[in-house]
Design goal:
Helix content is 48%, strand content 20%. The two termini are 28 Å apart. 35% of the residues are buried.
Length: 244
């Protein structure tokens, strides 16, 4: 919703609503898109949703992370978009002795930096991608090799191949692959990624890992779509009943 729409709904002054939304944005409960000027619920709410036993993408995705970590013995991450950043919301470690723990739950990176983050960026609307590549260069300054031209080439390769690859761009001895979890419109709702030492990321194994990731991502995407549709229908039925 735009600021004017929120103001109309809550029936408060525009300055008050703007101040409240700013405070909610700072703690991650709300996110603001500079391009569209829209406010949305932020993923900082996922812990509150879990406490209230409501729907959470973390809960839905957890079985996928467990299966992938058991099958690959490497570290599996779940990331979501929060504004122009990728937020790590869950992690599951496998049994391989050398673990690549490059992200903790709650860590953020600029969109495009890292395999999961790149998978999220590549499958966003084209206008969002263009704006992020144009305007978000300051956030990427701490990460070498992620200038706008280089990142655009990575986005093209990700769209072509169907998965994102990070070959030591962040930690030289580590590599990672990531795939988007897409809704029915093809937009990335989340990303699943696997990180391992580079010796475990040869071409044959990358192909194997991508296949497993894509299978889990497809099933999770369908589950999220079905859950969302069920909740939408329930809400519509409630409105219809209240009308009478």
């Amino acid at each position: 919703m735009r600021l004017a729409d929120v103001t109309a709904v809550v029936d408060l002054g525009k300055a008050t609503v703007h101040r409240l939304l700013g405070a909610l944005t700072e703690v991650g409960f709300v996110e603001f898109d500079d391009g569209s000027k829209l406010y949305r619920l932020g993923y900082g709410l996922f812990s509150l949703a879990a406490a209230a036993q409501q729907f959470s993408i973390v809960e839905q995705a957890r079985p996928s992370l467990v299966r992938l970590a058991a099958a690959t013995e490497d570290t599996v991450y779940l990331s979501v978009r929060e504004g122009d950043q990728a937020l790590c919301v869950d992690r599951c470690t496998g049994k391989f002795p050398i673990r690549t723990l490059t992200l903790d739950v709650g860590d953020r990176r600029p969109l495009g930096v890292g395999a999961g983050s790149l998978a999220l960026l590549a499958f966003q609307p084209e206008g969002d991608i263009d704006r992020i590549l144009r305007d978000d260069h300051a956030a990427r300054q701490g990460f070498s090799g992620f200038d706008a031209d280089g990142l655009r080439a990575m986005v093209r390769a990700t769209l072509r191949d169907g998965y994102a690859f990070n070959g030591g761009r962040i930690v030289s001895a580590m590599a990672a692959v990531g795939v988007p979890v897409k809704d029915h419109d093809g937009r990335a709702l989340a990303a699943l990624s696997i990180a391992a030492i580079r010796e475990r990321m040869g071409p044959a194994r990358i192909s194997e890992l991508v296949g497993m990731l894509q299978q889990e991502a497809e099933e999770l995407g369908r589950s999220l779509d079905q859950r969302g549709q069920t909740r939408t229908e329930a809400g519509q039925n409630k409105v219809t009943e209240e009308q009478f």
